[in-house]
Amino acid sequence: MDPEDKQILKKTLELAQENNKMLHSIRRGMWWGRITRIIYWVLIIGASIGAYYYLTPYIDSAIGAYGNVKGDLQSFGDMFK
User: Fold this and answer.
1) Which residues, in sequence order, are CB contacts of 9 under 8 Å at separation 6+?
2) Which helix (H) or strand (E) holds 12?
3) Residues 8-24: pLDDT tens digits?
4) Could you give the CA distance from residue 62 to residue 48 in angstroms, rounded to a whole number?
């Protein structure tokens, strides 16, 4: 093998190693991005479910109060008919 071929082979090896490092970095970034996205959606869905269970009694009492007021207004209107 002449020196020029050795130099080309050495340069090719260096480029291949650099490409390998970049590909590993890209894959690691994709992996962390996927983990972050999963955590994000778990938090969003968990907060939504938690808010639903936390607010359900208050919403039910508000609906009940609205029903009571509606019934009172209806009976008040019936008095004048």
Assistant:
1) 1
2) helix 3-79
3) 999 999 999 999 999 99
4) 20
The dihedral sign for the CA sequence 14, 19, 21, 22: positive
| Structure tokens given for 76 | 């008040």
Name, in order, each residue with C-beta under 8 angstroms of 1's C-beta and a sequence gap of 6 or more.
Answer: 9
Instruction: For residue 62, give the 3-state DSSP assignment.
Output: helix
* Angle in degrees, CA 30, 28, 45, rounded to 5: 45
- Per the model's pLDDT, the better-predicted residue between 70 and 64 turns out to be 64
